[in-house]
Amino acid sequence: MQIWLLELYALLLALLQSAGGVRTDEAKYLLSIPYPHPPLLRSLFASIAALPGQEFFWRFVIASAMTQAVWLLMDIGYVLSPLRRITLVVSWLLSTALVLQAGTVMLAPLTGLFGLLCVVLALRPKPISATSAPLLGCLWFLGLFSAYQCVLYLPLLVGVLRSAHVSWKKIFLFLGFPLLLLAIYTLTNPLALASMLKVGSQDAPLALFLRLSNVLWICVIAGSGLLTLIGMFGVLTSGRMDLLLTMFLLLAYIFLSSQQYYAILLTPILVAGMMTLLVRRKVSGQIFLPVHIMLTAVFVFLTFPDMHPTAARATMRFLDAQGITRFVLIDGPFGHEWQYESTGSVGRFTQTLSSSVEAHAQAIVCTKKTCEEDVGEEWKRMQGAPGEVWVRR
Description:
Elements: H1 2-18, H2 24-30, H3 39-46, H4 54-68, H5 70-76, H6 82-93, H7 96-101, H8 107-123, H9 133-144, H10 154-163, H11 168-187, H12 190-201, H13 208-223, H14 226-236, H15 241-256, H16 263-279, H17 285-303, H18 311-321, E1 327-331, H19 336-341, E2 345-348, H20 355-360, E3 363-366, E4 379-381, E5 388-392
C-alpha cells in the first residue's frame, strides 16, 4: 500500500510537469545534445527516442525514483521513534524542491538523488565494509559521468571511506581516477567546457545583494523554509566535517549559478541536518510536520511552472495538423524544445539564407515580435496559428 501510494504521488508529479510540454533543458537531455553534461544518463534518455511516450516515461521514472528514495531514509531512521521517522521521511518527500523537480526530465533531481544516497551512506549507524570501497568507486564513476554537479558531494564519500578505514592511497584510487577520466572527457569536448565556463560566469554581472538574495531564495525552496533553517542548524551543530564541507560547496556553487532547479541539490544535506537533530531529540515532529506541509503548499503555489503548452508544442502540433511535417525555419530566438517537438527538421531563418534552403522550407515560424519585414512576398501568414506562422502562397 505504501509503495503504491508513493507511485501515485510520483504519477501526479509527472502529470503536472508534462502539462506544459518539454522545456529547453529537458529537450537537451531527451535528444542527448552533447552539452553541458557527460553522456551517461542523457544517452540513456535518448535511447528510446523512437518509442512513443518517451518524455512522459522518463518523467514518471525520475519521479518514482525520487519518491521511492524514502526507503533509504527509513533504513537509517530505524533508530528513531515512529513519529520522528515519519518526520524525516516527510522532510524529503514534501520539500518544495522535490515537488517542483521530481517530474522534470532534468539531471538536477537525479543529482539530488545521488546526494541523498551519499547522505544515507554517511549517516548509517554502521559504516560500510572496506571491501565495498570498489563498489562505491563505481557509483562515483556513474554519478560523475551523468552530471558534473555530483562532484559537490565528494566530501561525503571521502568521509564514508574513512569511516570504513580505507587507506588514503585507495581513496585517491577509487575517487581520484574517475575524476581524472572526467577531466580528460571534458578537455576533449569543447562544447561541454564552454558550457561550464558560461554557467560559472553568467551571474557575474549581477550586484552582490541580488546574488545573495537569489541564493537565499534557492535555500528557501530547497527546504520549504522551515527545513532550511532546521537542516542548516543541524549541519552546523553536528560536528561532522563532511556535512559542513558539502553544504558550503553546494552554497558556493549556487552562489556562482543561482538557478532555481539547483535547490534540489541542497535538499539532501538539509535532510541530513534534520536527521542529526532528530537523533538528539531536538525537533518535535508534531510541530514540524503541519508547518512544513503548509509552507510547501504556499511555496509550490507561488513558484509552480506554467501548465499551458509551450509555444513550441502548440505551434508544432498546429503545423502537424496542417500536414507541414518536413522542414520549418524559425525566425528569432529558439531552443532545443522546437527541435524536440518537431516531427521534421528545423533551421534558423536569416536574411542571408541561401535560396535553395529557403525553397526547401514548408513554413517560417516567428518567435520575435514580428517577422513581416523579413519574409518575402511568396509567403503569407497563416490564420488561426498559435503564433506568427508563414507558409507559401
